[in-house]
Every structure is written in structure tokens, then in C-alpha cells.
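new request in #modeling-help
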Amino acid sequence: MTPLLEALDWVLTADSWTGPGGLGVRAGEHLLYSLLAVGLSALVALPAGLLIGHTGRGRGIAVVSTGVTRALPTLGVITLVALAAGIGLTAPMVAFIVLAVPSILAGAYSGVEAVDPQIVDAARAQGMSPVQVLLGVEVPLGMRLILGGVRLATLQVVATATLAAYVGAGGLGRPLFLGLRNYDYAMMLGASIVVILLAVVLDALFALGQRLLARRPGTA
Amino acid sequence: MIEFRQVSKTYPDGTAAVEDFSLTVPSHTTTVLLGSSGCGKTTLLRMVNRMVEPTAGSVRIDDVDVATVRPVALRRSIGYVMQNSGLMPHRRVVEDIATVPRLNGVPRAEARRRAMELMEVVGLDPQLARRHPGQLSGGQQQRVGVARALADDPNILLMDEPFGAVDPLVRLELQRELRRLQDDLRKTIVFVTHDIDEALALGDQIVVLRPGGRTAQVGTPRELVEAPADDFVSRFLGLGEGRRKLRAAPRPGGGQVVTDDAGRPLGVLDDADGGPSADAGE
């Protein structure tokens, strides 16, 4: 059997999914870490990005800093933070947030910036306050791009979250690294396949969300 | 009454959009700011609701300097209609019209009821209430824009080339409707246009502007046509062109036929015995 078929066989075996170190638990951890990282990033990056888009200020800094952080190797960040914070979830979580923030930030400010300035002008001229313009006009009309940033961040984090296992924090990286060390390529490949499936399913959900948004009038 | 007191607007790069402009806009009348693009007319209009802040001078509404009023509160008390309707593409027509009443704290149901009334006032089929602006014609969109501006019954209506983007026939119809509305509502309207026919059709007072927001002439439509202050105004009104140089010739059935310089008939002039006098512009 080719390694790929062996891997599929391993993934499709019920035994692989059960137990405390089984794929079920690992996939759950993986998903949890990813959503946690994206959630925490969004908490910071969404308001910041919306503010940048609304005011037009800080855009230069945002572009430069997101460019720089995107160039950082995630494994390096994990190692660096782990040296200070030790083994556990902290180091990978910091690295994932560093990974996710630029995409969410960029999506948020470009979403707001993409709204027709005439419509924003009209909203202001009717007497909407800056917050009302942002939440009532800019966010709903820029939602597709804003969501696109979160979508990209999610995809990046899910694909990278295997690195959590590098510092002993679990996730689907666990069977991947284990397989690598034990020359169990079926396990290694199998774990990768589950990561890919997870990423594809999440991405499809986002795609569906964006498509539903596109049906709403005005969100081009 | 709106007063512009020696207002100027100079941008940081040194270009002066408006220089030392003064004007009184009487209440319950329509004042048209007429000029070609770049003459600062929109800048002047937007000073009234603080969408633009003058760098010198002041704008006063009923003797209150607008600079002392919070912009958001000020804008909610003034109707504003813009060229490309500026409707919210994600909102239904009825919601959009209800915007300002809602901002001013009118309950949703009451605001909607008022919005529906206004649709009728501006001549919109109530069936369009649930549509989005993308599903309306240009003329319908402008009517929605007017309805939205009138929704909370403001005293002042600012109109920035509101009919500039619709085709000529619809434009004439909208102008007619605005005059009908104004006969009923008696708002203080400041209307910006570069279209001389529109200015003559709508203005009680017309302000002809030169570049830099300098006044070339202020007067009633009749005063402008009868006695243009200088060449600039005369040229702007097109008085030198054939279109406005009219001739009258006796008509077999009585009265006179009015033609333009090229001999094309424009209308009929009845004898001055109280019959309907044809307005050459229409």
C-alpha cells in the first residue's frame, strides 16, 4: 500500500479517533486553539482596523507593521516566547495571534475604506454620529471584506496550529510529530489530512457566509 | 434666515475655495447658488450644516453662529439632498427616509408612518417602500432623497445639484414638483446648481458666483435677465446666445409667436388681457 492509502486507512479506523490521545480529542484541541487564537486576535484587530479605516489615520503604521509581522517565522516566535513563558499553550497562542492579527486588521480597514465615500458623506450629512456611521453604514457595507480578513486568519491559524505540539500543547500536531519521530508515516500523513479537512470545512463555512452576505443589497 | 458673514475657506495647501463671501438667505424662499464647477458653491452650501468649516468668518442661522452648535445636532435639524441621492444601499427606502426622525428619537413605528406619508408627498408609489435604492430609477432615487431630507420637517433644506444626474425630462418634472412642494412647505432652501435654466426656474434669489466663491451678482431671476451686472453674468446666463435672444411675431389667431434667434418656435404670447402668458423658458 502506498503511504497515502495507509494514512487514509489510519484516519478511517475508528480506533484512531477514540481514547485520550485519539484524533477526536486532538482535532477538538486543534479547533479550540484555532478559534481561541482567532477570537483573541479579532478582539484586538477588529476594533483597531475599523478605527484605522474610519479615521484614515495610522494606516501607514498598520501596513508596515503587518508586513513585518507576516514575515516572522511562526516557529521562531514560538521558540522565543517559550524560552520566556515555558512549555504550554502560551507560546503557541502568542505566535498564532501574531499570525492572525495582520490579516484581520487588513481586512477590517480595507473593508471600511472600500465603502463609497459619497454614502459615508451622506450618512454624516444626515446627522449620524461617527459611531453610527461606522456601525450603521461602514461595517455593514464593508462586511464582506472584513469577514474575508477573519477567513484568511482562520485558515492560516488552523494550518499552523500543528506547531502547538512543538512545545507540548497538543492539537493535531501531536500525532503529526509523533508519527514523524516514530517513522509512522501513516499517522503523520493521516494527521495532516485531518488538518486539511478541518481547514477546508472552516473555509467553506466562511465562503457560505460571504455568499449569503453578497445577496444583501449594497454589499458588493 | 441664513447669513454668510465674510466667510472664507482656504485649504492647507493654500488654495482658496471661497474668499470673503457674504450673503443673506431670507427665510421661506429659495436661494440658488449658481456657478460652474470649482466656484465654491458646494463649499458654501456645506458650511451651513458644518460639513465644511470656514477658515474665516461665520455662518449664522437665525442669528446663532452654527459653529456654536454641535455638528451632529445641527445636521439633524437641516435637510440635505445630494447629487447622487446618497441613499443607503443596504437600507430599504422607508427606513432610509425615516433616518433623521429615528436619529432624533422618534419611535420606529411613528417614523415609518411619517416616512410613508412623505413618500406620498414627493409623489412616490408606496409600494416602493420595501425596495432598496438599487431597484429604483434615478428620478425615484432623487425623490427618496428629497423625502429623506424633509422627514423631520426641518426649516432649512440644502440641495446640492440634486437633479444633476437624471435625464432632462425627469429633471424638469422634479423641478416642477419641487416648486409645488415649496408652495406648500415654504422651507428656506439653498440650492446649488450649474444649470442656468434650473436656477431661473427655481430661484427666488439667484447668486451668480465667479471662481473662488466671489459674488458676481445677486438678484431675482428677472433682475438678472433684465440687467446683468457685467459680461461674466451675461455670458453665464447665455444672454448673448441665440437660445435666450427671443423674437415675437404676430400670430394669425391673435397674440404673438415667440421664437429664438434661429427662428425656432418656443411658445405663444397672448395679448396682454390677462390671458396665460407663455413662459419662454419652458
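bot summary: The radius of gyration of chain A is 20 Å.
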